[in-house]
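Before a computer can learn anything about folding, someone has to put a protein's shape into writing. The outcome of that step, for a single protein, is printed below:
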Amino acid sequence: MTEMVYGAMPVRAGEPVLPRWWRTVDKWTLACILLLMGMGLLLGLAASVPLATRNGLPPFHYVVRQGMFGGVALVVMFLTSLVSPESVRRLGVLGFLLTFVALALLPIFGSDFGKGAVRWYSLGMMSVQPSEFLKPGFIILCAWLMAASQEINGPPGKLMSFGVTIVVVGFLAMQPDFGQSALVLFGWGVMYFVAGAPILLLASVAGLVSLGAMAAYTYSTHFAQRIDAFMAADIDPRTQVGYAVNAIQEGGFFGVGVGEGQVKWQLPDAHTDFIIAVAAEEYGLLLVLFILGLYTTIVVRSLTRLMRERDPFIRLAGTGLACIFGVQALVNTSVAVRLLPAKGMTLPFVSYGGSSLIATGITMGMLLALTRTRPQGEIGEFFKRSL
């Protein structure tokens, strides 16, 4: 009867958790995630060996660590994808509160590791970057507030979410971390637009962002140097972007050959921020297009499934998670080809980094949980019955 009324598959009584998860999860998205992790290990074999050699470590030290972090990310993603949307909301809000406290305490207990920005906690054998774990919780919290504002006599959730966004962006800018600040603002803006925000208000926010960028350029030497380097007519071949652009040009369509690339010996961040340059040089444009296709598939598949959802929270949270995932990949690859100024942003699931891998695992676990098939009618069917 349920299937006849709502047009969707009902939950089978007594069905075990794992078979139900496998039946309802988006297998295309899951396959793309596993392929991206495989790409990360493949490229790590090439990109991280020079760094290990310079640091006097075994050649595959960083590859082994990436495999360990990737395993943890897979477990976390799988466990998170099992839970209900209500549990995703609770975990997201709790996670946001914990990571926000960690973010606020960075100026006191954090470290910059000589990079000029206090973004990490040093824990001896490893480091933790709170901003990576903050993003999924931030998206969930803002989606919850926006969805609550659509209820009768609901709170002013949209205004509250804007206040949360301003506070978070302020703390990120203090590090300074303008790349993550822009990503957080973008995630909020996408959800606000989906929730039905007035265009005038979004234009006003864009104006405020422009004023903030001008202030950052005026008062932040770190920010100004990156903008000046990006706006320069010629690329300095001795900079990271210069090496990356040259490597991409050398790679051509099919690459120079496995292990034959030189950019991994020239860039200190070849295994993180500029991993796509290693892929382009050694494997060519074809592998780069394949990687970009995987990201595109994940985002498009997720948004397509979310379009059928009737729950405002699920639509908003899923849209925010999918978009920040895709835009982070877009920003990373755009920096490598000099379409954007350097941001210090990793390529999700591919770049080396424990915080990035595990936090992205949490993000995609939440997205998989929100996009699972549930016994409800599609939103189009709901409108048809209402007419």
About this structure: The longest strand covers residues 121-122. Residues 312-336 form the longest helix (25 residues).
